Each structure stands twice: as structure tokens, then as C-alpha cells.
């Protein structure tokens, strides 16, 4: 018989419970609906500070075990998997309410839940607002041998798998450049774009980073960015591949090699492979169509499969730490006039507010 795992959700808002109503996709999207859709998972409890959210969650999902306090929920329900679906900085506001506001709720909850001994954790992105807290998360996850994935969902989107296979299978030759297309904020958006580029390239190390806020004159004061800045970046991966973000188009990605390119259009809706011909130039080569599956189901089931097999998750803490560091290094590079830097040069206490 297939073993099922007990899932509890912290934060019963859109990502925890209701985002399916917004029409982004017909596939299960909230953690509650993805859990319900999976034969490996059982939704057992939910937690929110707001009584009305708890009531709506019970009505919608038939789960009576609801709590105001995360620790009480974990101690009473002993879930196998907890999903952290609160806002990152613990407020609904788009900007920090004060110049010294340094709340980092994803980090607080992740460290606390890992230390409570929960074996599997899904954490909404970005997992931390500073490297000080990302370092703490890595320590807690590793010390407790906890399996972690975060909500960078293109990593779990089967429409990107053929692109990755093309790149890693050498079909476009030696990879030279990766491009991400879309205007985007840094911690809310580029955590996704950097993670996807990294995934498509096989998660190499990141050697150097540079970047700039769209407001090139913005001056960071007090090691604190009180909003999530729109930004562009360049990453130099180990082995010499350069990744560029271009602030236009709708979430597209292209990987270019010596013998061709693979491009994803319109937020994963379609893709195009072009390969070098003998006569010169690059011709389009058909790709098999992909029927999309739920990214959140895939992400949660990867946790379970990895836990059972004793292997690293697809979005393990090392890679999440690396991408978080690269994102925050863009802010550090902006502060230092857009210079190239090693990701580890980011000041650990540089805090970037985001939702
Ligand atoms: N990966 C994705 O595709 C995706 C999509 C949507 C949102 N998100 C992310 O999900 C996170 C949540 O966003 P949302 O739009 O669902 O927010 P939301 O405001 O709709 O829901 C957050 C909920 O958390 C609750 N909460 C706050 N502090 C809490 C605490 N200490 N304990 C328990 N509950 C608490 C709030 O009351 C609220 O109901 C954000 O980080 C956002 O970036 C990711």
C-alpha cells in the first residue's frame, strides 16, 4: 500500500488555500488543492492568525484541525510536511512600514519548524530577506536532516524539462549564454528567473554577479531596502556561461550554444528548438508537445519521493541558498555602482523587503 503523508499549512491565504479561484491555471495551484489532488498526501491541519481565514479553510477543505499558533499545530498534529505560505516579511503592505523594519517571517517559520523536527518543508519564496537569515535556514535544515523545496515553481514545471534535456544532452553544443526576458522585482520575481536559468543549466555554481535597480540612482541606506526593487542582472556561472536578464517580454527564457538555441515563450506556453545546419544558420527542429501537470503537486511529491529515497530534493537548501545569495548580491552590486562581485561578498545584514 502507498504510504500517505500528513500535510499542514501555515498561512491560509491565496497560496495556502484560495489561489485556484483566480484563473491562472486549471491545474491544482494552492497547497491545499495540490495536497488534495495527490494520492501521496493528506491535508490534516491549517494555521492562520485570522479567525475568518481559518473558518473559510475548514469550510472549503473539510479540515477541522485549525490553529492560530504554528507551534501548537505542529506539536498537536505532528505533520510530516509543513507548507509555509505566509508573506515573506509578515505584512500585506508593499513597503516596509518603518525604516528599521527587518521582519523575516519565512525565515523565522522555516528555522522554527525545522527545529521542531518536521521532516519535510515547503517554503514560499523568497526564503529569506538577508543572507544572515538564509545562513540560519541552511544550518537548521541540515542539522535536522529536513527535506526542503521552495515555491520557485518553474523548477517543477514539466514544460521546462525538454529544454533542460536539450541543454544538458548537448544538442545545442557548448552553452554560451542564457537570457531571461521580463521586467521584474528582485526578490519576488528574479528569485524565480535566476532559479529557472540555474535549473535549465544543470545548477552550476555562480562565480560572479552584477546588477542594478531600475532606479539607478537609488541609494541604499542603513543596510536596508524597504521595498522590492525592480532590477536587472548578469550572472557568470562556473564554466563561463553568462546569464542576462532583459526587462521586456512575458517570462521567456533562451539558452544559446555553439550549435543552436532553445527558447521558451509566454511563461512556458510553448518552446522552440533551433539547430545549426550544414549550410550555415539555425533551423527550427520540432519538439514534442508537453501536457502540463500541476507544479505544486510535482514540488510536494518531490519532497515525499526524496524523503523516502534519502536523496536531495530538486530544490534542495544548497541551491536555494545559492540563488537567494545571487539575488541579494544584485542589491549589493547596485550599492557598489553595479560592479561584478562574488556572491559571497554580499553583506549578510543587507535586508531587502519583499512580499
Ligand atoms: N509560487 C507562486 O506561484 C506563488 C503564488 C502566489 C503567492 N506566492 C507567495 O506565497 C506567499 C503568500 O502569498 P499570498 O498571496 O498567499 O498571501 P496572503 O496574504 O493571501 O496569505 C498569507 C496568509 O498568512 C497569514 N499569516 C501571516 N502571518 C502568519 C503567522 N505568523 N502564522 C500563521 N498565519 C500567518 C495571513 O493572515 C494570511 O491569511 C508570498 O510569499 C507570495 O510571494 C507564491
Q: What is bound: which ligands?
A: nicotinamide-adenine-dinucleotide
Architecture of the largest domain, according to CATH?
A: 3-Layer(aba) Sandwich
- Helix percent band: 25-40%
Shape: globular
Major sheet characteristics: 8 strands, mixed
Number of discrete helical segments: 10
Give the name of the CATH superfamily of the largest domain: NAD(P)-binding Rossmann-like Domain
Evaluate the radius of gyration.
20 Å
Can you tell me about this structure?
The chain has 355 residues and is of the alpha/beta class. It folds into 2 domains: 5-153 and 296-315, NAD(P)-binding Rossmann-like Domain (Rossmann fold, 3-Layer(aba) Sandwich); 154-291 and 324-350, 2-Layer Sandwich (Dihydrodipicolinate Reductase, domain 2). The chain is 32% helix and 23% strand. It contains 10 helices and 16 strands. The strands form 3 sheets. It has an 8-stranded mixed beta sheet with strand order 8-10-11-7-12-13-14-15. Strand 5, helix 6 (131-143) and strand 6 form a beta-alpha-beta unit. Helix 8 (186-200) crosses helix 10. The protein is globular. The two termini are 41 Å apart. The model has no long low-confidence stretch (mean pLDDT 98). Nicotinamide-adenine-dinucleotide is lined by residues 10-16, 19, 47-50, 53, 70, 85-88, 90, 92, 124, 151, 153, 188, 355. The site of nicotinamide-adenine-dinucleotide has 25 residues, from helix 1.
Amino acid at each position: 500500500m502507498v504510504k500517505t503523508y500528513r500535510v499542514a499549512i501555515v498561512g491560509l491565504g491565496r497560496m495556502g488555500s484560495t489561489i485556484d479561484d483566480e484563473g491562472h491555471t486549471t491545474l491544482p495551484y494552492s497547497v491545499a488543492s495540490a495536497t488534495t489532488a495527490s494520492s501521496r498526501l493528506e491535508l490534516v491541519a491549517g494555521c492562520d492568525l485570522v479567525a475568518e481565514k481559518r473558518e473559510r479553510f475548514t469550510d472549503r477543505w473539510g479540515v477541522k484541525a485549525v490553529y492560530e499558533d504554528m507551534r501548537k499545530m505542529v506539536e498537536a498534529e505532528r505533520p510530516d510536511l509543513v507548507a509555509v505560505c505566509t508573506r515573506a516579511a509578515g505584512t500585506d503592505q508593499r513597503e516596509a512600514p518603518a525604516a528599521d523594519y527587518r521582519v523575516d517571517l519565512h525565515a523565522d517559520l522555516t528555522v522554527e519548524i525545522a527545529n521542531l523536527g518536521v521532516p519535510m518543508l515547503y517554503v514560499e519564496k523568497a526564503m529569506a530577506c538577508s543572507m544572515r537569515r538564509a545562513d540560519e535556514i541552511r544550518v537548521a535544515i541540515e542539522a535536522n536532516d529536513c527535506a526542503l523545496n521552495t515555491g520557485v515553481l518553474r523548477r517543477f514545471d514539466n514544460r521546462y524539462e525538454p529544454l533542460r534535456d536539450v541543454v544538458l544532452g548537448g544538442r545545442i553544443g557548448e552553452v554560451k549564454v542564457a537570457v531571461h526576458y521580463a521586467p521584474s522585482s528582485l526578490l519576488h520575481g528574479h528569485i524565480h528567473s535566476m532559479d529557472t536559468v540555474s535549473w535549465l543549466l544543470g545548477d552550476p555554481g555562480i562565480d560572479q554577479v552584477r546588477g542594478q535597480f531600475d532606479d539607478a540612482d537609488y541609494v541604499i541606506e542603513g543596510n536596508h531596502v524597504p521595498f522590492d526593487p525592480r532590477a536587472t542582472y548578469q550572472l557568470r556561472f562556473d564554466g563561463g556561461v553568462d546569464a542576462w536578464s532583459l526587462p521586456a517580454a512575458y517570462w521567456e527564457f533562451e539558452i544559446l550554444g555553439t550549435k543552436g538555441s532553445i527558447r521558451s515563450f509566454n511563461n512556458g506556453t510553448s518552446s522552440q528548438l533551433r539547430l545549426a545546419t550544414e549550410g550555415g544558420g539555425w533551423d527550427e527542429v520540432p519538439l514534442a508537445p508537453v501536457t502540463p501537470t500541476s507544479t505544486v503537486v510535482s514540488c510536494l511529491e518531490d519532497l515525499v519521493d526524496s524523503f523516502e529515497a534519502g536523496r536531495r530534493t530538486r530544490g534542495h537548501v544548497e541551491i536555494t541558498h545559492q540563488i537567494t545569495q545571487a539575488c541579494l548580491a544584485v542589491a549589493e552590486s547596485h550599492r557598489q555602482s553595479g560592479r561584478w562581485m562574488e556572491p559571497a561578498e554580499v553583506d549578510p545584514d543587507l535586508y531587502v523587503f519583499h512580499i
